[in-house]
Amino acid sequence: MAELEFYGATGQVTGSCHILRLGGRTVLLDCGLIQGGDEAERGNRGPFPFDPADIDAVVLSHAHLDHAGRLPLLVKRGFTGTIHCQKATAALMRILLTDAAHIEAGRVRRENRRRSDRGEALASPLYEQDDVERTLKLTSGHRYAAPFEVLPGLRATFRDAGHIMGSAVVALEFDGADGPRRLVFSGDLGQYGDPILRDPVSPGPADVVLMETTYGDRRHRDMAASLTEFGEVLERAHQVGGNVLIPAFAVGRSQELLYNLGKHFDDWHLDRWQIFLDSPLAIEASEIYWDFAHLFDEEASELFRQEDFMPSLPNLHFTRTADESKAIAKLKRGAIVIAGSGMCNGGRILHHFKREIGDPKTQIVFTGFQPRGTLGRRIIDGTDTVRIHGEHFPVRAQVHTIGGFSAHGDCEDLLRWFGDIEPDAAGGRAAVYLVHGDPEATASFQGRLQERYGVAAHMPQVGEVITL
Ligand SMILES: [Zn+2]
Fold first, then answer.
1. What tens digit of pLDDT does each residue of 392-409 get?
2. CA distance 11 to 110
3. Gap between the Cα atoms of 139 and 137, Å rounded
4. What is the pTM of this model?
5. Which of 3, 143, 196, 353 could form a cystine bridge with 357, CB 3.0-4.6 A?
6. Count: domains in the chain
7. Is the pLDDT at 298 greater than 80, yes or no?
8. How far is the CA of 214 from the centre of ligand 1 (A)?
9. Which residues neighbour ligand 1 (ion) by CB within 5 Å?
10. What mean pLDDT is reported for the chain?
11. How far is CA 161 from CA 9, 148, 466, in A?
């Protein structure tokens, strides 16, 4: 008897977590944080719909927190099984989960100052560094295309999803109600033709497909148009004499931005700028990217061979300490600042916003998806004031969204990936379940799948159980 229960990232983008039950054993596919506002925060603290001690193993698609960020909580609450992931994912998890625990500790410290002033009971963190260390000890790293046993009777294979370093599409093989079954879980899918990473690899045949739909309702501008647009933003910033602030995810976006800046150094006249990677986490993630250079695509591999270090940017500054970061503020113009967090719900980008978001000369460039409830989403939606660290600031900066740099494939990428899944011998298509999208994006993708492939995909509800 094999069953799949839908839990996280069902009808929404974050909190990826699906429950696979197989002959009395239970495996989780991802165990991610819910992101975006107070309600998300409560969701993360709430109970799991299972006893973590009863989970036998976790198969993790990639290291992003909305896929891996609740693993330390799972461990804290009793999970002792193995966490299977790609080798680069294991390396990235160390820095991402450590950072998450650090941010959580800071948040709880601030919260408890308020609570103790009011004489209220103190809050405790979601998890601490100890829990992270115990989580990391449970990870088992695998190579792409190398099948491994998750449990007796359950085999898994990771294939490159082209989303961030180590990101994987997971193919799971087991015996179902009517014989051998193959479940393919997309994780998050990257764009075809993205820099540094290889394109998403076809997962082979499948009976059941569980796939993300983050951008199921739209096309990105293509990479060439996005690069042109980015060059224009830099030109404009130079002419009006402002700085360029780029909120970016530490893992993936930051490295691709640096890569593109290095590649277009002359076209974009970057010699007249100072470039800052203002995020200790992104600096560490960059080092991990270079460590896994054997996973680069052809162009990046070639550059890596020539330069031995990427990117080649003579005016790039890694600002690790808070003092170095504060020193950037002295530059009133001519600074390109890449800082976290990508969704602007924390991190050094907020300090830059406080100083510069009220200045019409400032250019803010969004390059990644901004979920509902995040500050990034409000800025993109055109709010005229923002509240940061309890203070209000008018938004007068120019705001740009450059979709072509997204780590997620757009609807055409998703359709292409689905089209690469081989139909069965009778030409039949897999049963498809759509997750990891806002409901409108998922519904739109459902229509596109029907139109392109004649497939009636299903949008599951939280708690829905299907027999495999
Ligand atoms: Zn992701």
1. 999 999 999 987 888 899
2. 32
3. 6
4. 0.90
5. 353
6. 2
7. yes
8. 10
9. 64, 188
10. 93
11. 18, 18, 25
